[in-house]
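[step 3/7] fold_predict: job queued, chain A
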Amino acid sequence: MRITKKVFVDLAIYMISLGVIVGVAFPFFCILIGVPRELAMRPFFRAACVLAGIVLGALNIVLARRIVGYRVNRLSQKMKHVEDILVARQTDGADQECNAESCLIEVDSEDELGDSARSFNQLVMTLSEVLATQTEVQLFSEMLASNLEVDVLADHALQRLVANLGASGGAILLEQGGDLKVVASLAIADSKVLAANARIIHTVNSMERQLVHFPSETALDGVIASFRPKELLIEPIVYKHVLLGVLVLASGSGFPGNAIDKITMFNPPLAMAFRNAITHGQMQQLAALDPLTGVYNRRFGNRRIQEELSRSVRSGTPLSLLILDIDHFKAVNDTYGHMSGDKVLVMVAQTVLGAIREGDVLVRYGGEEFLCVLPGASKHDVAAVAERIRVMVNNAVLKNADQELRVTVSVGTVSYPSDSIADVQQFIRLADEAMYEAKTTGRNRVVSL
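[step 4/7] structure written:
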């Protein structure tokens, strides 16, 4: 029963009341045990008994406050300290942590008070782990937001995940063109075999997490690391029910108990970051591509020529350009229509792509004019490539309804450092002059400066 709003005041009232009752009843108890009635019922003796009861009640209150109140007050102070830390984190972003000295309570009894202290300590430890994980996730998300290049993003994300989840190594694989491609790896001896691993394929198909435990004698069936994993975590990277890739983490000693909870928190920002990076890459690619032929556009081509020329000047390696123009292309449009002309442009672009080397860059430079950047190609090399292009286009046939269309190209080439090149504009102008010379001297030919 509550009398006031303060527990210890109520306890004091009850204790003193009990002391008074005991003091009143004590003389009668004395009579029962043989104390003479006239002595037990003297007013002084009865008053002394009541006073003794009051003093005993007061002493009980003092002891309760010293023993129970002290511990309750200590618990309250620790709670206030934890509250101050939480408020500081929320308002000022302070990163103060709870440790055993500042936040935990010494458990010095095996009763309800001890149980309360243990429960409080467990609560603080759990809260501390949650806050630490939230801080890790926040820093992880900030790091992800600062990267839009897929390869850089994957590399940084993998390093952070390996550190935060207690892994010894791992890899990130992304879906590209229907296949899995390793975009980042750490401490994996042969990351190329990961895409064919049966467990990873199962995760791709099921989009479900796998935590695999390896006994010491178990072979790793394709996951060949520079250490022997004890556990393998395979996490699908999913954004809005669409699989983007797979995260593979291996631990040589086993993952900590909160690893699964952490990866559950890390996965959403990781998936969103990869989705943004992939979209950014697609937009960058679309901005650099000619929508008809699918090859690079003039704006991208100019920038790429500048980059390659600067690299060649620094390293002293050769760089060549060739420009080709479709002969009599206006006649194709006038005779067969612009749709047929578009098909011819696509056919020529695809033919040229089949003739150049990997690493060469094809650009649609004008209406029916294409430019090709050939890093590392000498004057002799670019002449050979240009001739191969001319022959392949000359032999190509475009079937248009019941007609067969054939076209030829005139090609001009220029090469650095064989030709004196001052800047990009001169580089392109010389190649263009060589192409026009091929035009004026008969077409369907290659002219090299």
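[step 5/7] annotate
The first helix runs from residue 7 to 32.
Residues 218-224 have pLDDT under 50 and may be disordered.
exit 0
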